[in-house]
Amino acid sequence: MNVTVTGAGGQIGYALLFRIASGDLLGPTTPVNLTLLEIPSGRAAAEGTALELQDCAFPLLRTVTVTEDPVRAFDGVNIALLVGSKPRAVGMERVALLESNGRIFGPAGGALNAGAAPDVRVLVVGNPVNTNTLVASAFAPDIPADRFTAMTRLDHNRGVAQLAVRLQLHVAEIDGLTIWGNHSASQYPDVFHATAGGRPVSELVGREWLADEFIPRVANRGYEIIQARGASSVASAASAVVDHVYDWVNGTGERWTSAGIVSDGSYGVPAGLVSSFPVRSVDGRWEIVPDLAINAFSRARIDASVAELLDERDAIRALGLL
Ligand code: NAX
Question: Which ipTM did the prediction report?
Answer without folding.
Answer: 0.99
